[in-house]
Design a protein that fits this description.
3 domains; 10 helices; globular
Amino acid sequence: MPKTAAIEDLLKVMARLRSPKGCPWDREQDHKSLRWHAVEEVYELMDAIEAGDDHEMAEELGDLLLQVVFHCQMAQERGAFNFEKVARHLVDKLIRRHPHVFGNSKVKTVDAVWAQWEQIKKAEKKGTKHERPSALDGIPKHLPALMRTEKLLKKARKAGLLEAGAGTGKLSKAVVGRRLFELTKYAQRNKWSAESLLRAEMKKEERNLRKLEKARERKKTTN
């Protein structure tokens, strides 16, 4: 049996579910109604991975793939794109962003690979509506506050907007974890959302970092 048979069957099943004689629930969905389903499936996949459960991992990967084909089917119905276009775009991007595998680039270390990836990505988006002029661009807005804060700080450090040692100290990981927990408990006791508080602070710090970045760019152009 051809390796593509299962994918073809999956696409046919999805099309049938969305057809006039298909499933009422599947037919009434749209991209927005499904957006949080994909998030939930990712977290369930993470649980399976951390449990080391291959059976559950395969099932959760299937559920995540369902989200992909569901969105592709809905997009195809409105003439936007289809599964073939999504897969082809991914193949082309992987080849384009791995010139050290498919081309003549000589990078060998993980850090060099990541730097090359970012350079290629930036060049791809230059001059388009998806251009990322700031080193802080490209962080998903809907990431949980703590994850988004970590990514923001990582990008800021790479861009030299934070000192290499900024935020370091002599606290152990256990102490930091305990303090995070205690702060969350304190916020809850006061009927505050720790998630919202951190998100608000993170947005404020991001604005400050972007101002610093722009100031440095202006200084470069005037020198």
